[in-house]
Amino acid sequence: MAPREETETEAATGETPVGAPAGASPPALGVGMVGYAFMGAAHSQGWRTAGRVFDLPARPVLAAVCGRDGKAVRAAADQHGWAAAETDWRDLIARDDVHIVDICTPGDSHAEIAVAALDAGKHVLCEKPLANSVAEAEAMTAAAERARARGQVAMVGFNYRRVPAMTYARRLIAEGRLGKLRHVRVTYLQDWLVDPDFPLTWRLQREHAGSGALGDLGAHIVDLAQYLAGEPLVGVSAMTETFVRSRPLPAGASAGLSAGGGGAAERGPVTVDDSALFTGRLASGALASFEATRMAAGRKNALRIELNGERGSLAFDLERLNELSFHDHTEPAASSGFRRILVTEPEHPYLEAWWPPGHALGYEHTFVHQARDLLHAIATGTEPEPSFADGLQVQRVLAAVEESAEKNAVYTPVLPELPAPQAL
Amino acid sequence: MAPREETETEAATGETPVGAPAGASPPALGVGMVGYAFMGAAHSQGWRTAGRVFDLPARPVLAAVCGRDGKAVRAAADQHGWAAAETDWRDLIARDDVHIVDICTPGDSHAEIAVAALDAGKHVLCEKPLANSVAEAEAMTAAAERARARGQVAMVGFNYRRVPAMTYARRLIAEGRLGKLRHVRVTYLQDWLVDPDFPLTWRLQREHAGSGALGDLGAHIVDLAQYLAGEPLVGVSAMTETFVRSRPLPAGASAGLSAGGGGAAERGPVTVDDSALFTGRLASGALASFEATRMAAGRKNALRIELNGERGSLAFDLERLNELSFHDHTEPAASSGFRRILVTEPEHPYLEAWWPPGHALGYEHTFVHQARDLLHAIATGTEPEPSFADGLQVQRVLAAVEESAEKNAVYTPVLPELPAPQAL
Amino acid sequence: MAPREETETEAATGETPVGAPAGASPPALGVGMVGYAFMGAAHSQGWRTAGRVFDLPARPVLAAVCGRDGKAVRAAADQHGWAAAETDWRDLIARDDVHIVDICTPGDSHAEIAVAALDAGKHVLCEKPLANSVAEAEAMTAAAERARARGQVAMVGFNYRRVPAMTYARRLIAEGRLGKLRHVRVTYLQDWLVDPDFPLTWRLQREHAGSGALGDLGAHIVDLAQYLAGEPLVGVSAMTETFVRSRPLPAGASAGLSAGGGGAAERGPVTVDDSALFTGRLASGALASFEATRMAAGRKNALRIELNGERGSLAFDLERLNELSFHDHTEPAASSGFRRILVTEPEHPYLEAWWPPGHALGYEHTFVHQARDLLHAIATGTEPEPSFADGLQVQRVLAAVEESAEKNAVYTPVLPELPAPQAL
Amino acid sequence: MAPREETETEAATGETPVGAPAGASPPALGVGMVGYAFMGAAHSQGWRTAGRVFDLPARPVLAAVCGRDGKAVRAAADQHGWAAAETDWRDLIARDDVHIVDICTPGDSHAEIAVAALDAGKHVLCEKPLANSVAEAEAMTAAAERARARGQVAMVGFNYRRVPAMTYARRLIAEGRLGKLRHVRVTYLQDWLVDPDFPLTWRLQREHAGSGALGDLGAHIVDLAQYLAGEPLVGVSAMTETFVRSRPLPAGASAGLSAGGGGAAERGPVTVDDSALFTGRLASGALASFEATRMAAGRKNALRIELNGERGSLAFDLERLNELSFHDHTEPAASSGFRRILVTEPEHPYLEAWWPPGHALGYEHTFVHQARDLLHAIATGTEPEPSFADGLQVQRVLAAVEESAEKNAVYTPVLPELPAPQAL
Fold it and tell me: Has keyword Cell membrane (chains A, B, C, D) (predicted)?
């Protein structure tokens, strides 16, 4: 039957993976993914689609997906197109047909899996935030550096760098179109915790999630700000808040904790932040402000970033991700203003392979681009961006945020401390 | 090897296609696509992805793709994931593993292929516009009706109905949220012909393309207006224009026509419209205005639609396709206004299967939704929307537009003539 | 008392009006206004404020206001700052202290008053539309031309030309920033007639209002389109509609027509259009579309205009009147887009005298600018824009619209007929 | 002559001022304004226009304006319509025809003038910020309280409270439409200092201006946030920055400081902040963020405020001051979203007296509304808002901001310290 033939064609190529750690030569690279929830679905779409759209140096093969619940992981494999299912990530890493380990689990397991995979000779793609602590992130970065010497690559999944508008913004900034940077302001606003009766999921418990809006949303905007600015944050001042301090236990959990029936749902303590608000300075002395919250009614995914420089400004809103606003301050004042660039031209990053101008891309395309870029990094042996070191830097900023929030918002350097910004 | 296993799993099910014309029962349905350019790439993405996202009654199998150039079609098959390649559409239709024929060719071949496929017992999906003439569209609709009696379905690819914001808009209108309709205004603005030296491609020659902006963009907005309003256009008044009446012949064509070398590119006549501007009346008496053009500098894909009714209004712009603007005129004036609905909630059409709120979809998702809906229609034996009869109605409107444009814009009924709108 | 002193200071100047028709020389010019409703209030604000903001060649003095109801006109004089009140416009014209007659009455009295005022040696500012018929407008234009020979000026109050964004748009177009024009599309959408029980005021009766949305809103957008394009409309194709054909008689009127009490309000026929929809061609061959309606729920004052040319495009919305969108099509595609110019820079028209950048102006400022420009025209003896001839041209377009609407939308030349657009 | 008559009519009324401190009874109230630059022009427009638009309990009379340069102040009096000119503010206060003293000078003279005026029995309107120090503001507030006992009123000119969209926002919040407040974020972005060669005016020198962006822009947004939220800020964490630390001396100043000619302009030190970035907590525990800067290229007057509560959200941008965005979080998610309310309906604050719906107001209308509200407060003997006590509270916040900025951004309570926010 026809659908078989596609596979047979692949089989018939008999080529060895390009850039495969073992030094093999065919153009296929097996991917093994750990975790298959929201991120797993998005990554699957990325792996499945990248080779259909881009001219890739290697064809990604969805070799195996891994999860603890055997039945569930098999269903996920069927749905998302993974050839095999595993229930122990160690087994996944051990597979010969897995060359890339893609880690989509919650943050508390990132370090163990990533280090093991790297040490086993695999390339690694790890979801953000890189880890739940600086120590873990340091260990991971060290492992990545060791692996790098062996030709392996390690990338962290800050996918918003791969929204074409953001990649293009970085290009404009790198070209000097903003000049000396003065301000960066970023918010990431969501509203799914506004309802005080939203249940107490694992994401709201520190032991599992590490932190709340800070690690989930804040990590994205810290990375994006540093990526776009092309320089690190050197210190922060922060406040965090948990507005709703107890929430109903989920049905199962409640049953487990309470013998009694009837009445209102039992509530448990929320142990992570609902919101994090912080300011900071970049290495150049530019001022930056950040807000990450799950309590902004009506804002669904409002990652908004604006950068102001001496020669121009840029603005972006993830809810309108095909657009970039650019103000060129070197133009005559009377005819200047923020222009809405529809980032869908063939000259824009990634767009040469997509649809004609004006035909919108969406959220999931960032994962297609991520897959593409990782495969290029593997093929060319170049360090992928964002690297684990980039992820570690974000982790250090988050740690400084938490420290500042505990110390009455006092300005707290991001370690290791850089020299103070020069007088301007 | 792992990637094989996916296929083996499929093979192991041994099920017959659901809703397959031959009465077989397995859950796989083979698709055969004719044409593999822009639309072919988009449809391929739809077929590949639908089953990964939605819970479908049948699994679409990319059986074979067809094109006249054997080498090129084989490359396209590889790129887009089609199991086989054919060079004659008659052979494609004859394949046993093809249950659905998906027609992505230019309009002049739609009728012949579609009628043959339907007569051969296949389901048909045909790109828009349905045909290049009313007569062809009538023949296709007759064939579809004959096939319908045999349990086959035929759908025309007006994919913009399947932008979730548009499907949701239709739902709001059907629920009466706009009340009695007064105005529909739609534009579809692009700018790729602004440059007078853009070459004379086949799309600019009447013998191949039928018409210009009218058939390409105008067909979309006529269908969308009628779909949303829930009623047909009954008459139109139109002007069309070809602003740039000659264009450089494409490199190859030029060589063919001219012995001489050197000098500027030779130019040939543009024989279709660059722009079409028309007004009309819906069956209810509402006024409608339409503009389709490829000469609107800076507008890349500006399909904009607004509907005003006695109880509310809706507005949409395809360049921001995740948003719908809705004004509820029954609310107190002081606190009312057009609200920007981010059409990404699980309650919105198609969104139950996609990402969390605020995570944008893009252009190509309409093709995933189209594949899903066609498969449901096949499985349930219901008439798909838009049907060939819907496509024929659009064709009749376009014919009335061309007739009016030739007759000094005089109001021209869309045939067959409906009774005049009632006094209001 | 202090407030007296201001006047005494003025008195002490003893200067004669600049540009006064009688050849006098002082820098004060007396204004006599006929009508004091909505337009009268706006014009009063213009006359009171112009000299406080701009450096004028003559100081406008609010000499007298005229209305038929003596008590009401005296109250209006008090409220709006007019020194005297008259109840017969002939008496107003006859006043020696009136050098400018400002006509703010409904259209049916424009011609008689304007011709009399011009023949009496006064400058005239007449509200739009210039008249209720072409014949009246022709007579007024003839009178203006006679008066022009005597050094008088006559201007028609198409105030939207004096929104700074519109004046600036005209400047950009005149400088060639749009290149050859292809498209003009304008709507003027309001919603105050959506409610079918809005009463039957005089504006909805043909004998008083001439026409409905067409003369009220359509006149504005026809003038604005021609002003911006810098060329006239040469022909139109039109549909008009009266969606709600009877409305409750106003309280007083109802009492007059009905002996009976109780029950629902009596209704009378609406004899003007609710909506007018028309397309047309400019002298250059550019296509234009127009929609004027009072039935667009949620649109309060949505005068929206977009112009597309070979080198760029402009867009404007009166609901955001401090902004102009400009796309420069000569820029590289990757970094181009519609830029939002905040038209509040000192380099922008009229803005040198107002607030710092970013400090918004409003609707009424158009009347301040109108007063300023009229006074400059008087002082310099130049023809003001828009002239009565401009107003007549708009009237001819409206007449062609009504004729086309009566003739099944057939394309109807605007008389006197210009040569057909050149082949392009 | 006509213009005289207006005054004679006023004179003829013979009424005594309503609410005049001396107990007189006529409906006129004399205003004496100190300062006549930007703010003076805006206030003049407010005083001149208020009685033409609103039905006021007293008619404001522009009695006298005061400035140190006799010739210049006389010219300003002429231009703006003030009956008399004074060169010493003590003389202005002493005038019998001055009942209201309107202080439009830089902040360093506010305290002395305001206290003297209040002690002399006058009503006082004082521009923001109330003073350059907390001590001054305390003295002024004490004087206002003493005066209040004598029936005088004192108001501070935070005019943005009187943008109708802001007044209406406050009404919605007071009605509970946002529910419990979670977030307030406000920026006030301008760009006139981006150019490093913008000259060193007095506004950039601490001894004259007190502070930079903080006192100028920051004062506005602190007041607006507290006004809208209906509760005070209780503590802040702040960073400030002077990006450009030296600037060219203005022509005159340079000459004064430098013997030498030729070469580039001499530069002097900027001693105030260019930018201030701070976070804080409101009494209810809501988080707030603030940014005031003159270095945001392309942002002309971007006072943007967003408030998120448990039941809804509001957003506003001063560059589009006729609009308010409102999200009602109690509506069904599928049809909810931020609605754009055009705040021009007769039901909106102040709008009953202005133009029809959709006809925009501008910046200067806030001063008309301010005049109206002050006159009502005088007539009714009610405390005006914002009172001097409100201005003092803002001053205390600014002091805490400066203290925090000096102390490494540590969280600094606004004094007098309120009890800590309750546990939520």
Answer: no
